[in-house]
Amino acid sequence: MVAKSDPVNVRYEALAKNLLKGELKRRGVTYAQLAEKLASLGITENERNLNNKISRGGFTAAFFLQCLEAIGASQLQLG
Predict the structure, then answer these.
(1) 29: in domain
(2) 79/72 Cα distance (integer angstroms)
(3) Whose CA, among 7, 31, 46, 61, lies 20 to 30 Å from 67?
(4) In terms of residue numbers, what domain contains 54?
(5) DSSP 6
(6) Per-residue pLDDT of the chain (79 residues; tens, 9 = 90+)
(7) pTM of the model
(8) Is residue 76 part of a domain?
(9) 1 in any annotated domain
(10) 34-69: b or e for each residue (b if 16 or more CB lie within 10 Å)?
């Protein structure tokens, strides 16, 4: 098992964080709006928690996909 602090993990966590933040910015979606959109999917998060979770970048793949679905993202450019 790879440690959370392993440089490979750190790199991919940063990539996921930057992809999500970029998609939010591209669509003009605030954390408050994201919280509302997630709520419509039955996912309870508040603006502050979203800000902290996304800023840290250590979120799950499930959370990442939930956010993308909530904002209507169907494609990502990885590089």
Answers:
(1) yes
(2) 20
(3) 7
(4) 7-71
(5) S
(6) 667 778 888 999 999 999 999 999 999 999 999 999 999 999 999 999 999 999 999 899 999 999 999 999 999 888 6
(7) 0.89
(8) no
(9) no
(10) bbebbeeeebebeeeebbebbeebebeeebbebbbe
